[in-house]
Hints:
3-stranded mixed beta sheet, 8 strands
Amino acid sequence: MESKIESLLRPIVDELGVEIIKISLGGGGHNPLLKVVVDKAGGVDSGMLERISRGLALQLDVEDLIKSAFRLEVTTPGLDWPLTTNADFERYRGEWLKVMFADGSSQEGRNLGPVSDHSFMLLVEGSKRVKDQEQVIEMADVNKVVRAINWKEVSRTK
């Protein structure tokens, strides 16, 4: 079902330059939830979400894919959405990330993008005595990677 929904959604998101992150239909019962997660580099504004939602709703009504009443939610991933693919690291290139390692430690830094299918580059800010360092992070060593806020940078802009 998700692949059929994606085929209806594809022309709408392509026109807006938006990527489909996830499509899920669940909740069962008489009023299932169709959740569509979309994003693009630089973010998606509420007007785009509205256009995607209206366009998909119209297409679903015409095609009558979901026979019962359903709820449609079109949203973007939050900061805590895990980055797992090269497309994720490319989309969020230049953004601040928090990497949580399998050993329980964590590291924050600027995403410099994918290096290979299984690694990405992180620029870790140094201090007055230590220079910034580029680190290749292997996904095999990672539990989770999420976007974060660099509070030092935020406080500098005031």
